[in-house]
Amino acid sequence: MDGAPKQGPERQAQIQIKVRDEVLGGVYANLLLVTHTREEFVLDWVSVFQGGGSLNARVITSPGHMKRIVRALQDNLGKYEAAFGKIVESEEPPKPVMTLGSGGEKPN
User: Is residue 41 situated within a structural domain?
Assistant: First the structure.
């Protein structure tokens, strides 16, 4: 512990992340749709209310990064349940049908 910068695998790179105001507040989602191709995973975060819904965010990532995301989620879920108790899984909602278009209108 001499205060010298760490070298090798112990060294953590620091990345400065800028967050735009419109992203800072986050978005609500109560449904996640996951699709994939050989090259990428697509995560569509959806809010469903009263039979309708809207796509709030779409994240496209590589399979390697998806594996790290799943591991991080499992780790945090375990920590959450250790602190607050077991989570009871809610009933799965019906599968939605997504339409393309800026306002959610069906294409012609």
Answer: yes
